[in-house]
Design brief:
Length: 495
């Protein structure tokens, strides 16, 4: 009833059964097998990269005017809208996420293609000021073939964030979805190849290559045809990719992990702060790079705020993603649920008090799925492993702070620098703290809100480079400077 895609992968525009090992994808709400997809093999990665290089150089694509590339992106956006319910259900089945969330992610994927089309239409090349008798300009050209590697947490949206600007920039793309969640990326690939064929564009522009990261992902990064890798995932994997890229002198952009602080000052609007803190960590069951997983509360309001928070967290509705009332859906995979549970055990060993949650939910309804109760911990020091390592699950650690300097020092005492939330009525305090915190994105009196027009990326171990925004397409292009001599006289030696 989900209309699962046939057991095929996309190699340079051709759908076929992959020659790699079979991948069993599982519905995390029930533990049942959803589909078995045969992964791409290393040879197929090489074949896809060669096909992509040919497609990128094909005059039908190479000379296509920007407004025609924009037309492609608009058609993809329309195709996503038409298939929205199918894509959302597929993603809910594969990732466990609530349907309300996957519908929003699908809508955001269509929006990303439309925004990028508009940015492409208005991204004019301009003349640069000349310092001699020359006409000078700087132009942007495609890199050629892009390797895009994504994690399992929000596939359709993160796929769109890479595919739209990569195609807008005039490139071909090899996309590797995560091994646990290949289905929605394959379905998106079907839509895009159909649109490419309709517009008589080379279908080899796109490959969707599911498979193990250490095999298929590694082969993509090492392939000599790949001119840039754009990666979203864990910091350790990002480092491995960056090391390989250094050997090829290949640019990379890395969107990595986080352990983001959410800060509640004593004067905050408590209702708003409670709702925002809960949404910031427990939506997506905490499986979000920007999850506000460390809660810093001013000591004078700490006991009341955390007490009220714990009471409300206890009322969050845990259930399958298909139930419209669900607020906390299962985690992506049983193995990941076990890793989250192991972190809570570690927290106990480190001396944490489990204020709520701290186990799988009781009851037969939850026995087969990868569920974990939303959990609030306190009594830990920020130097503990629980506070320093990314858990990527519904686990919040609360910590009191005494003053602004203490807060900034402790919040910044992390290898990560992805996001931060500040809840206060004092706009000057918000400004000061926002400027002092190491984070690529700071939300003030809101959290986890996104605009495709606003650049996104991390500081420190949270990543390199920025996605989105008008300049997002430029990250998929190379800049070239042109000097056009205008003088009638031959060049002189002296300068
Ligand atoms: P991951 O283990 O790093 O995997 C991410 C992707 O990389 C997967 O497709 C994976 O394949 C692949 N991969 C693994 N090893 C590789 C290698 N040696 N070479 C090339 N590719 C390789 O991360 P994850 O557990 O899927 O995702 C969770 C992480 O992503 C968290 O740390 C989260 O914070 C981060 N994230 C960051 C952002 C952001 O924008 N900053 C957004 C979302 C998620 P397999 O599926 O086979 O492992």
């Amino acid at each position: 009833m989900l209309g699962l895609p046939a057991d095929e992968v996309l190699v340079a525009g051709e759908w076929r059964r992959g020659a790699g090992a079979p991948i069993r994808t599982v519905d995390p709400a029930t533990g049942r097998t959803l589909a078995t997809v045969h992964a791409a093999s290393v040879d197929e990665v090489a074949e896809a990269a060669r096909g992509a290089a040919r497609a990128a150089a094909d005059p039908r694509w190479r000379t296509l005017l920007p407004h025609r590339r924009a037309q492609l992106l608009h058609r993809v956006a329309d195709a996503i809208d038409t298939a929205a319910e199918h894509l959302a259900s597929l993603q809910t089945a594969d990732t466990g996420k609530a349907l309300t969330e996957t519908r929003a992610l699908v809508a955001s994927a269509a929006g990303t293609f439309r925004y990028t089309a508009a940015a492409l239409e208005t991204a004019e090349e301009t003349l640069t000021p000349s310092r001699g008798d020359c006409l000078t300009m700087s132009v942007y050209e495609p890199i050629g073939v892009i390797g895009a590697i994504n994690p399992w947490n929000s596939p359709v949206a993160s796929d769109a964030q890479k595919l739209a600007p990569a195609l807008a920039g005039g490139n071909a793309v090899l996309l590797k979805p995560a091994e646990w969640t290949p289905l929605v990326s394959l379905a998106l690939g079907r839509l895009i190849t159909r649109v490419l064929a309709e517009l008589d564009l080379p279908t080899g522009l796109l490959s969707i290559l599911p498979g193990r990261g250490s095999v298929v992902g590694d082969a993509i990064v090492k392939d000599p045809h790949i001119g840039k890798v754009v990666f979203t995932g864990g910091t350790d994997t990002g480092r491995t990719i960056a090391r390989t890229a250094a050997g090829k002198l290949m640019p990379v952009s890395l969107e990595l992990g986080g352990k983001s602080p959410t800060i509640v000052l004593a004067d905050a609007d408590i209702e708003q702060a409670l709702a925002g803190v809960m949404f910031g960590i427990f939506s997506s069951s905490g499986q979000s790079c920007i999850a506000g997983s460390r809660l810093f509360v001013a000591r004078e309001v700490y006991d009341t705020f955390v007490g009220e928070l714990v009471e409300r967290v206890g009322t969050l509705r845990v259930g399958p993603g298909t139930d419209p009332d669900t607020q906390v859906a299962p985690l992506v995979h049983h193995k990941h649920r076990d890793s989250v549970a192991a972190y809570v055990d570690l927290a106990r060993e480190e001396g944490a008090t489990v204020r709520c949650g701290g186990s799988v939910p009781p009851g037969a309804a939850y026995s087969e799925g990868a569920y974990y109760l939303p959990t609030v911990l306190d009594g830990l020091d920020n130097s503990s492993r629980t506070c320093q390592e990314e858990i990527f699950g519904p686990v919040l650690v609360a910590l009191p702070f005494d003053d602004e300097d203490d807060l900034v020092r402790t919040a910044n005492d992390s290898v990560y620098g992805l996001a931060c939330g500040i809840w206060t009525r004092d706009h000057r305090a918000a400004w000061r703290i926002a400027r002092r915190i190491d984070a690529g994105t700071v939300w003030i009196n809101t959290y986890k809100q996104f605009s495709i027009a606003t650049p996104f990326g991390g500081m420190k171990d949270s990543g390199l480079g920025r996605e989105k925004g008008r300049d997002g397409i430029r990250a998929y292009q190379r800049q070239k400077s042109l000097y056009w001599g205008m003088s009638d006289t031959p060049l002189a030696w002296a300068n």
